[in-house]
Amino acid sequence: MRIIIDVMSGDNAPFETIKGAALAAQSFKADITVVGNEGVIRRICSENGWDTALFGIVHADSVITMEDQPLCVVREKSDSSMSVGLKMLAEGKADAFISAGNTGALHAGSTLLVRRIKGVKRSAIATLLPFQDPLLLIDSGANTEVTKEQLEQFAVMGSIYMSNILGVSNPRVGLANIGTESTKGPKNLVEAYEYLSASENINFIGNIEGKQIPFSNCDVLVCDGFTGNTILKVAEGVSSFMLKKLKSILTANVLTKLSALTFKSKLTEVKNSFSASDYGGAPMLGISKPVIKAHGSSDAEEIKNSVGQAIAFISTNVIKEISDTLSQKLRSED
Questions:
Q1: Mind listing the pLDDT tens digit for each residue in 166-179?
Q2: Over the Cα atoms of the chain, what is R_g?
Q3: Is residue 121 predicted with pLDDT exceeding 90?
């Protein structure tokens, strides 16, 4: 399997992304290629004792920043590490592409360079949330406005992904809303509820309130990208706050410190359960080839695990099954 990593994009690039690529090359049986400024890549590898023979290097002149406009990936910065990597994927020079860079640019580049699966109206970012049971949140940031038809497609793609990657049988699909009743929320969500309820392609169970999200009320949660990204960021913030609060309580005095030692392993277990790094990045579902969006602040471990996720993605029939399901639906509507 051939995996390309954009090592110049992301908050902790290029150090953490290059380190992650090196770890992945040592951990997985995959042909890793890193894309970025070759001089910088070789210098960082030399300074840290990382063998450049572990992966291939493809030079790219520029980098897309988090402030750049999405379409710069095919316009002003078509020579960027993200653009070069996506072009290689589109040309069949790789089986998957990973980037921790600008979400809008990655979404635009994936759509325009790699292209969507036939029949897919919008691709979407599908993020696994490490709650009581893994929950797939889709869309978590690619599309700020969506139609009921697009929400159904997100549900179909998310269900296929959960079934193939995590082995969830007949995944339960929920619609993110402010209440569980079918009449709750703005008009577009009331209409979406009715539309999803009538769909024969998904196991729709109804609306899911924010307070229900962590407690395994559904397996796939669909929403627009603005709502999804807000849910994602709030979940990250609350988990970080709770862990810091717990730490402050347990280190308040000698007695609490001694008490903490008795269940240190359990505390570590709780901390790890909130870690998105264990899952790696988020797949861009609906694109004709595997594109993985790693978290903007990814460390080396998350980059490494994103490679593992890409390998799992390649090894399944997710893309073909999405294509077949949507093609069948389109034929039935003709």
A1: 999 999 999 999 99
A2: 21
A3: yes
